[in-house]
Amino acid sequence: MSKQILKAEVASLGGLQLKCSARGFEFLIDEPENVGGSNEAMNPLEALLCSLGACKMMVVRFFYQAKHINLKSMRVEILGEIDSDRLKGTPDVKVGFSKIITNYYIEADNSEEEIAELVAFVERTCPVKDTIVNAPEMELHINP
Length: 144
Known about the structure:
Oligomer: single chain
Distance between the termini: 33 Å
Structural class: alpha+beta
Helix content: 25-40%
Order of helices and strands: EEEHEEHH
Radius of gyration: 18 Å
Strand order of the largest sheet: 1-2-3
């Protein structure tokens, strides 16, 4: 087994704006104005949905030719259902998403069965989906 460690860092820019960094790349996270943010970037839950969708797209991009898919275009839409009452302090309500829905939009010169097989492969092999569905061990350290 060949393990590797991926590293990401998040730093506060003031208010609710955050700078997310990994391997020299950066993006911002913020919140909408109605919850105290400046609405200059997506929020963490939206970023999670984007990460999931991007990972599914990346799996397709890596494997569609090997799967003999004549891909013309593709788009993935990820919907996350969440009960915002928990964030307002209502007890006994799940904090995170209660449901995540993926809608695939695939244009290819292939049969419906071949496209369904590609999607099933993506759903089995997407690392971000696997991380969400099969939660990893979590460890934390508080450093000075």
